[in-house]
Specification:
single chain, 4 helices, 23% helix, Alpha-Beta Plaits, four-stranded antiparallel β-sheet
Amino acid sequence: MKTVPLTELAAVIRSKNAGPYELTIDILFKNARHYRYLKEIHFFTEELFARLYGVGVEQVLNLVYFDPASAVKCTLVRPMVSGTPGDADVYGAQQHAPVLGLRVPLEEWP
């Protein structure tokens, strides 16, 4: 099966704080058809995000497929409380980098 970079299918890939203890990753798709296909095959899983972020699955708090926006949202335990000494990204806005390298399967369209 052909794979393509996620960055070709997503209009937005971002991260942000979901409070001082949690981090949210958002992926909003350009095309609802691609979103629905990846949802159908359960491409995005807690295990995938745990592997990407080098954490245990129990650190992945929530994974939501949000149909009205053709979006996937994943919330993780933040590795360091926002704003504590040593925190290099207080807003959590630079934490989506591991997702940028993903390649996703793309079904063959008739």
